[in-house]
Amino acid sequence: MSDFSLHIWPPVLLTIELATITTLLTLVIATPLAWWLARSQSWWKEIVAAVVSLPIVLPPTVLGFYLLVVLGPDGPGGMVAGLWGARTLAFTFTGLVIASILASMPFVVQPIRNAFAAIGDRPLEVAATLRASPTRAFWTVALPLASPGLLSGSVLGFAHTVGEFGVVLMIGGNIPGRTRVMSTAIFDFVETMQWREANILAGGMVVFAFAVILSMILIEKRVSRARA
pLDDT tens, 178-203? Predict the structure, then answer.
């Protein structure tokens, strides 16, 4: 493998790994949360929704700072890391995953919540008359009907993780082979005037962003036709 490939491929592969793991874990957390937000009558559910949405409006440095406090040696993350002899979860791939989940959560929760809300009560009432338990109705009725929202949330969550820079740099640094993803690699290439490498990664992310936007448009179009 050439020196050029050694500079380019590690951050690309690490980014794909991070985005895949983050998306899967975020879906596991976001789906039941979105279901509760869409179905609950609790007065404080919108407070929870506002907390989940904070990463959209908070500067990445603010979120990154508090994550450093929580995941650092003196925070809960340090105690957890001590279980296997480490001092901190900051500047590790595990810390990067945790930060990416929190930063991507609103982009996954909101489409899924909207999809669950759009289902309405009628399909679930029909399932109840057929003696389906609430759990079974969720898995066999609600989840399939909300699949476009889950797909949209997955695409947005994956894309946001790939493109995230501020939180990733704050909590993960830019450690080659460990936390150096595409966004931080581009920053590093520009700082060191490695224009060729920066141009290839930046161009790849432009193509990826276009593919994401096109996918979202096609998903929206397909959902609109299905509802017509």
Answer: 899 999 999 999 988 888 889 999 99
